[in-house]
Amino acid sequence: METAKQRQIDILLAKYTESHLNPVNEAIHCVCVPAIVFSFLGLIWAVHPLAALAATVISLLYYFSLSVPFAFAMLIMSSIMLWLLQITPPAAVLPGSIIVFVVAWIGQFIGHKIEGKKPSFLDDLRFLLIGPLFVLGVLFRRFHIAY
User: Fold this and answer.
1) Is-contact 51 45, C-beta < 8 A?
2) In the chain, what are the domain boundaries?
């Protein structure tokens, strides 16, 4: 009898979760990961708004290959972030993004210090893209939404 093949998203989230078991670290990630995504988009936006849109589309293609529900959630989240960048005064985008990026990464490393484990992306850079899905997974589980 064949065993069901495990989905790639489940494998990636299981591996990511190994270094995110502490509830304080998880809570920190639920705040800092979206902040990092937003600030990273802001940094790209500061170069050119179309570059931020292109980065978003590329990441969404990857997310759709992993999980349609997660991809739609990321589409909504990314759209809101891009809209916020659109209405932010242009002179504030770069400095604001730098500040948020640095503060959020400090938060991440504090969370990993509490956890006692190194960040997942140090082993595999793909986990920089999985972090937002980990946060969505927390939200999806809370509301019993399948992904």
Assistant:
1) yes
2) 32-142
Mean pLDDT of 43-62: 98
The gap between the terminal CA atoms of the chain, to the nearest Å, is 26
Whole-angstrom CA distances from 69 to 15, 56, 60 are 20, 16, 11
* CA-closest candidate to residue 101, choices 46, 35, 48, 45: 35
Q: What is the pLDDT of residues 126-145, one digit of tens each?
A: 899 999 999 999 999 999 99
Give me 83's structure tokens: 């809209």
Identity at 147, one-letter amino acid code: Y
Of the candidates 128, 24, 62, the one whose C-alpha atom is nearest the C-alpha of residue 119 is 128
**3-class DSSP state of 4:** coil
User: Left, alpha or beta for 4 (phi > 0: left; psi -120 to 50: alpha)?
Assistant: beta
Q: How far apart are CA 79 and CA 129, in angstroms?
A: 17
Q: What is the pLDDT of residues 20-38, one digit of tens each?
A: 999 999 999 999 999 999 9
User: Rounded to an integer, what distance in angstroms lies between the CA atom of residue 138 and that of residue 7?
Assistant: 18
